[in-house]
Amino acid sequence: MQLKVSSLTERPEMLGQVVGMADTWPEFMLHDLVGNAHYGRIATELPEYVLFAEDEHGDVVAHAYSVPFALADEGNEDEYAGEGESAGDASPGTRGARDARRKLPARGWDDVLAGAFADRRRGTPPDTVSAISIVVAPHAQGGGLSAWMLQAMRDNARAHGFGEVVAPVRPSAKHLEPRTPMEEYAFRKRADGLPHDPWLRVHVRAGGVIETVAPASMTVAASLAEWRDWTGLPFDTEGLVEVPGALAPVHCEPGRGYAVYVEPNVWVRHTL
Residue 190: left if φ>0, alpha if ψ -120 to 50, beta else—which one? Predict the structure, then answer.
């Protein structure tokens, strides 16, 4: 397959094809309120951070979304500032390298997605790029496109002057063992020293380092009727319910009429 990777800034006429590309997300994943409020804004407000791959027929077969945000603003902005330099004075690249020691947020995906647009609203200069999603069209999966798009995302961040990409990774095989604590799963390795999980393995091979778990990276809270509609499961028993595609069990409260899914992700750092 011959591929061409572009950004939406370079090819704005491809917006419809990019946002309309088929995916394989479980239905419940489409109902995170933070995602619903902000994800769709990336393609129109940050098109330079939306990359897509076209095949030889001009069809979009993969896309990668990322956002620039102020990781320094997550903690004490002055803690690592050099003498005579405030956190807002350095260039994105030098600040990204200096801020590599910043603590990544426990609320992972939701935090950086909401924070990126809050930073834009406040005029806070970004110092880091966070991956948001890499999606491969169903018919093109299994051919290494995810690794290709991850490298393109890294190259794009570097081209914009940043020294680091961070990623709240959703391990691709974790749904097969939802009751295993993410703290155990994330650091599990094969005999060759690479991560057990295939998607984490792609990140490490690209130069990423697994750092920590984001225990509450995404939250989906909804009525039992909604969960039944999304999953086809009864949701009539109190306690933990295993849902296909979920990385952890969903907490069901039939006496109160709702269920809550809190998804853990894995923070990976890519120094550029």
Answer: beta
- Please tell me the pTM assigned to this model: 0.89
Asked if the model's pLDDT at residue 83 lies above 70, the reply is: no
Q: Give the residue-averaged pLDDT of 4-20.
A: 98
Which pair of structure tokens corresponds to residue 19?
A: 């946002």
4-213+266-271 has which CATH code? 3.40.630.30
